[in-house]
## 1
Amino acid sequence: MTDHPALALEGVGLRIGGARILDGVDLAVPSGELLGVIGPNGAGKTTLFNVVSGLIAPTAGRVRLNGDDVTRMPVHRRAVAGLGRTFQTSSLFGALTVLENVRQAAQARLGGASSVLRRPRGADAATTRAREALEEVGLAHRAGQQASGLAHGEKRKVEIAMLIAAEPSVILLDEPMAGVGSGDVPAITEVIRQLHRGGRTVLMVEHHMEVVLGLATRVAVMHHGELLAAGTPEDVMANPTVQQAYLGEAV
Ligand SMILES: Nc1ncnc2c1ncn2[C@@H]1O[C@H](COP(=O)(O)OP(=O)(O)OP(=O)(O)O)[C@@H](O)[C@H]1O
């Protein structure tokens, strides 16, 4: 298994009507990489994440998770197989507490029945895992608070704690800095850095270039549904084709 990339896209294409939304995307993401996915608006970045997570079926090519072909696997089974993702907008249950939100994610991973049958004294396994995940993102002190009352930046951290609790092997972060005030950017950057340091494989779509260049071990550039370039942040930013794609856009 270790010979396989954590995630591989092989000739992935998506046509909707006459439009080519994704075209021949080949990409191998080795285990432990933090890949920044960038590109101008409408380049196909979110669509690519939707294909990887199973929300959209590609019309060509394959998606492999740790070597296994998951192209036709539904979203929930892909999650169980080890794929986790966040969305541009918050996916928290506002009426639940922070701990309850993270606990749901841990419970989904552990499975309901076993934890009911074998409930450790005091706190069950899902609660313990949820508390550890909140600790990891520095939000243990918010555990009992209702999620709707959190600041936006804290909600982002709770979403990352939910990912940690679900223990995915590959994580997709879709614009983690979207809507985040500049004051919260460094703290969330640090949480993502920690997430990656734990040995997890992370793909991150992000427009905030400072964040991408500061975190990514490799950068992939999408343009008109194609993978234009992939390489170290330095190489990619020095690539004339990439600079051309961004003409008229803020890089
Ligand atoms: N279901 C759909 N039907 C038709 N066109 C679609 C559909 N989904 C996406 N598109 C088109 O595909 C292209 C890629 O969209 P996508 O949202 O993936 O781009 P993006 O790179 O994530 O953009 P942004 O940075 O603005 O979020 C866009 O031109 C979009 O209008």
## 2
Amino acid sequence: MSSEAILRFENISKNINRTEILKNINFEVERGEVVGIIGKNGSGKTTLLKLASGLSYPTKGEIYFFDKKLEPGFVGRLPQNIGVLIETPSFISNLSGFDNLYYLSKIRNIISKDDITETIKKVGLDSNNKNPFKTYSLGMKQRLGIAQAIMENPDLILFDEPTNALDDTGVEIFANIISEYKQKGKSFILVSHNMDEIKLFCDKVYKIDNYTLKLQDKI
Ligand SMILES: Nc1ncnc2c1ncn2[C@@H]1O[C@H](COP(=O)(O)OP(=O)(O)OP(=O)(O)O)[C@@H](O)[C@H]1O
């Protein structure tokens, strides 16, 4: 692994129900880098994020995160240092945004209530809002999902269509978060269909095409 690489996929293949989804994928994410992933619907982008997060395991090959191999197994072995927003964020419908994040924070127990309040403010939500999650608009749900992904200050953040449902202010807030966390040396994998967003944020872009990953020269 190059000295600054924090995540490495080595000859990764993934089959689901005997159908090949990804084939022989190799790539690295370096410290402070935003790596974009593009590709058609159903090409395997979310599958790749699930592999990177340890939520799913490869059929073949190895994934290293800070030189530690991601191993299949129980939840306790999931990497602690990866923040994830994949697909529509799911939270407990009767709890407020704050209480949802607080409940989730208790799994790892590495952040305080003040940290959560600060993160909720960072995504432009009201940390004193006691309304249950089920009353949130789509954009508010997405903002809370972004808050959950970043709240524990992880070294790698995986975002699947993060600006879906965000208004202009939400997109601006998201841009500020990327730039702030990049400066702190955090890395991202960003899956998006929005090419403007990909061009704006990504240092490197790969396209999933025909089960494999191709580095894009020009985006
Ligand atoms: N749990 C599953 N069971 C069966 N097939 C699955 C499962 N998860 C994903 N697939 C299949 O794997 C392929 C890749 O799906 P994936 O969600 O990774 O695509 P994607 O590139 O993220 O698509 P989109 O742009 O529509 O979000 C699809 O053909 C999908 O049907």
